[in-house]
Write a structure and sequence with these properties.
Its cofactor is FAD. Keywords: Oxidoreductase. It holds the Pfam family Amino_oxidase. With 460 residues, the chain is an alpha/beta fold. Among the domains are: 150 residues, FAD/NAD(P)-binding domain, CATH 3.50.50.60; 160 residues, Polyamine Oxidase, Chain A, domain 2 (Alpha-Beta Complex). It has 17 helices and 22 strands. The strands form five sheets. Strands 1, 2, 10, 11, 12, 13, 14 and 22 form an eight-stranded mixed β-sheet that branches. Strands 8-7-17-18-19-16-20 form a seven-stranded mixed β-sheet. Helix 3 packs across helix 6. The longest helix is centred in the C-terminal third of the chain and has 28 residues. The model has no long low-confidence stretch (mean pLDDT 96).
C-alpha cells in the first residue's frame, strides 16, 4: 500500500473540495484529494447519453451566485441564458393547461391575492434570517417545530394557494414532502437565495447555464491539481488526534496535519473514525437526510414547443412532473426539455417498470407541451437516489426540529477535521455556489490555523 504525506487531506472531489484544495495550494500548503467515484464533480455531472449531452446533475447559475460566477469567469468558461421567450404553461386543479406570461400563475383573483399576501409575509420573515445562523432568530425554535405545510395551511384555507406556495421549497428545492421539514428550514432555503420571491422566480434562480456543462468547473479545478487528485479511493478509515490525521483507502495511506470532509454529510458514516466522532456529531448527522428527485431529460429532433410560442417553462403542483423547462444546449439544433419528479411522486414511479415510468412521465410532460412531448429521440432519468456516493438529491436538510437543535454545530471542526459542502452553506445553500463558498471558508480557516501553529513553533 502506497503511503503519502501532505499538509491537508481532502475527501471528496466536488466543487467544495476542489475549491479548498486550490486555495490551499495557492497558500503554499500541499494537498491530496481522495475521491470515491471514478470521476470528479460530485453532484455535477455532464455526460453524453445516446449522442446527447445532458446535465445529469446541477447546471444553473443565478445572478446572486457571486462565488460561482467568479469561478466560472476565472476558469475562462462562457455562459448562455436559458431560453424563455414566449408563454409559460400552468396546469390547474381542473387538469386544464393555461398559458401565461410573468411570474404569477393564472389562478383566480382571490387565489392570486392570497399568494401575493403570504409571499409578502414570507419575504418579511426571510429578511430577518441570517442564512449562516438561522437558529439565532428569536422565533427559530417555534418556526422549527411547525411543518412548512402546517404553517401555510394556518395562513389560508385556499388549497391551490398553499400548493403553489409550498412547492417552491418542497418539491422544487428540498425535494421532500412539505410535512417532512419545518418552516425554519424553508425560510433558510429562501434566505440563501436572498428572498422567498427570488426562490419562486424561475427567471432568477434558473438564469444561465455554462456552455459545455457545469461539470467543467470541477474538471478544470482538478486539472490544476494534477496528480494530487486520486480517483476510485473511498476512504475506509480516518484516524485523528492532536498530531493530525491518517486516512486509509484500499490502495493508499495518507497522513496530513488537517482533513476536510468535502462530501454530503449522509456519507460520513461510510468512514470508520478512530477514535469515534464526538456524540454531538453522531447525533446531529442522524438528523440530516437527502431529498429525492428524478431529473428527466427528453431530447427531440427540434424544440417543437417554440413553434407554438411556448417558452418551455411549465409548472403545476398537480402534475407528476411539477415543473419543466427548455434545456436545449447552446448551439444545438435539437430541443431538450428537462422535467422534475419529486419526493412521494418519485417514490411512486419507481414502483413501476422502467417502460411504464417513462410513459407516465412523458404523459405528464404532454399535458404542458402537447402530444409531441411523448416521442423524444433520447430519454434519460437522473436518479441520484441510486448513486452509492450520493444517495439522494439535491442535498441534505434537517428533519423537524433538527436545524434549531443542531445547526450551529454542523460546520464546527472536530480536532484537525473540518467539514465543507453545499449542504451546510448559508448563501448558496444546496447549490454549487454554496459549495464553492464553503470550500473557500474552510481553506482560509486552515491557512490561518497553519500559520498560527507555525508562528507558535517558531517563537518556541
Amino acid at each position: 500500500m502506497a503511503e503519502i504525506t501532505r499538509d491537508v487531506l481532502i475527501v471528496g472531489a466536488g466543487a467544495a473540495g476542489l475549491t479548498a484544495a486550490n486555495d490551499l495550494r495557492k497558500a503554499g500548503l500541499s494537498v491530496a484529494v481522495l475521491e470515491a467515484r471514478d470521476r470528479v464533480g460530485g453532484r455535477l455531472w455532464t455526460d453524453v447519453i445516446d449522442g446527447a449531452m445532458l446535465e445529469i446533475g446541477g447546471q444553473w447559475v443565478s445572478p446572486d451566485q457571486d462565488a460561482l460566477i467568479d469561478t466560472v469567469e476565472e476558469l475562462g468558461l462562457e455562459t448562455f441564458s436559458r431560453y424563455r421567450e414566449g408563454d409559460s404553461v400552468y396546469v390547474g386543479p381542473d387538469g386544464q393547461s393555461h398559458r401565461f406570461t410573468g411570474e404569477m400563475f393564472p389562478v383566480s383573483a382571490e387565489t392570486e391575492r392570497v399568494i401575493a399576501e403570504i409571499t409578502d409575509r414570507l419575504d418579511a420573515m426571510v429578511a430577518e434570517i441570517d442564512p449562516d445562523r438561522p437558529w439565532e432568530h428569536p422565533n427559530a425554535a417555534e418556526w422549527d417545530s411547525v411543518t412548512w405545510d402546517a404553517w401555510l395551511r394556518a395562513q389560508t384555507d385556499d388549497d391551490e394557494a398553499v400548493r403553489n406556495l409550498a412547492f417552491a421549497t418542497g418539491s422544487a428545492m428540498l425535494t421532500k414532502p412539505t410535512h417532512a421539514f419545518s418552516l425554519l428550514q424553508s425560510l433558510l432555503m429562501a434566505a440563501s437565495a436572498g428572498s422567498y420571491s427570488h426562490l419562486v422566480d424561475a427567471d432568477f434562480i434558473l438564469d444561465k447555464r455554462v456552455v459545455g456543462g457545469l461539470q467543467q468547473v470541477p474538471i478544470l479545478l482538478a486539472e490544476r491539481l494534477g496528480d494530487d487528485v486520486f480517483l476510485n479511493q473511498p476512504v475506509r478509515s480516518l484516524e485523528w488526534g492532536a498530531n493530525g490525521v491518517t486516512a486509509t483507502t484500499d490502495d493508499l495511506t495518507v497522513s496530513a496535519r488537517f482533513a476536510i470532509l468535502a462530501h454530503a454529510p449522509v456519507l460520513y458514516d461510510r468512514i470508520s473514525f478512530v477514535p469515534p466522532l464526538p456524540r454531538r456529531q453522531h447525533q446531529l448527522h442522524q438528523h440530516l437526510s437527502m431529498g429525492f428527485v428524478i431529473k428527466v431529460h427528453a431530447v427531440y429532433d427540434r424544440p417543437f414547443w417554440r413553434e407554438q410560442g411556448l417558452s418551455g417553462t411549465a409548472f403545476s403542483p398537480y402534475e407528476l412532473s411539477h415543473e419543466a423547462y427548455d434545456n436545449t444546449n447552446h448551439g444545438d439544433e435539437r430541443g431538450t426539455l428537462v422535467g422534475f419528479v419529486s419526493d412521494r411522486n418519485a417514490d411512486g414511479v419507481f414502483e413501476l417498470s422502467a417502460e411504464e415510468r417513462k410513459e407516465r412521465i412523458l404523459e405528464s410532460l404532454s399535458h404542458y407541451y402537447g402530444p409531441e412531448a411523448k416521442n423524444p429521440v433520447v430519454y434519460y432519468e437522473s436518479d441520484w437516489g441510486s448513486e452509492e456516493w450520493t444517495r439522494g438529491a439535491y442535498a441534505a436538510s434537517f428533519d423537524m426540529g433538527g436545524l434549531h437543535r443542531y445547526g450551529a454545530d454542523l460546520r464546527t471542526p472536530v480536532g484537525p477535521i473540518s467539514f465543507a459542502c453545499s449542504d451546510m452553506a448559508g448563501a448558496g445553500y444546496q447549490h454549487v455556489d454554496g459549495a464553492i463558498r464553503m470550500g473557500r471558508l474552510v481553506a482560509s480557516q486552515i491557512v490561518d490555523s497553519s500559520r498560527s501553529t507555525s508562528e507558535a513553533a517558531e517563537s518556541n
